[in-house]
Amino acid sequence: RRVHGGSGFFFSIHNFVLCHKMLISSLSSRLSNIVSKSSVLQQKNCRFLTLTTLIVGKKSGGETWIAEGCAIYETRLKPKCNLSTVFCKSDEELVKLAVQHKSGPVICLDERGVEYTSKEFSTKLHKGFGFEGGENVCFVVGGADGLPSELKNKFPLFSLSKLTFPHQLARLILYEQIYRAFMIENSTKYHRE
To answer: Assign residue 185 a region: left if phi > 0, alpha if psi is -120 to 50, beta otherwise?
Structure first.
């Protein structure tokens, strides 16, 4: 039996089934290669990082597109690390939670902090910022008025830029840089210089 195509060509069902089987076989082979490469990358980067971001404000606060951008990076990072955000109601709560974080380094974002290139940040992140127990990193983003002085004096400061950003946008930029750090570590083409 023959099936008439809309473009005037005739294909036999038998040929269609053969092409379909070849396509499935090819896709299956490619998928197994991807899984194989993925397991090699996981063995290379055997440390599973837990990254917590403390930020003053509401989850629903700020621009919708910023929240959507953060959600995209959270989804992309799920297989690579445990990424969570804790929204604090006040500077006092921010300070309390940062000080209570004892299982790894606490890094505060501030425009007066140390600046890294993306490659340097990737190395620092994957080496726990030089702290013992660096698999559990806590990033702190101050509110609209910046970081409380208690945090600036107690913890290392990291700068995304000398420019000043709204704190919710700083979180989005941080998430992109975390994602980029994993792409650099895994030698993908995402990062270009």
So the answer is: alpha
Q: Which of 59, 108, 109 is nearest to 86 (CA)?
A: 59
Task: Tell me the mean pLDDT per 10 residues along the chain, length 193.
Answer: 50 54 58 48 58 90 88 92 93 96 91 93 84 78 91 94 90 95 87 78
Residue 93 CB coordination number (10 Å): 14
Query: By three-state DSSP, how is residue 29 classified?
Result: helix
The SS3 assignment for 119 reads helix
Using DSSP's 3-state secondary structure scheme, residue 37 falls into helix
Rounded to two decimals, what is the model's pTM? 0.72
Whether 184 contacts 118, CB under 8 Å:
yes
List C-alpha distances in Å: 111 to 104, 157, 173, 189.
22, 8, 13, 29
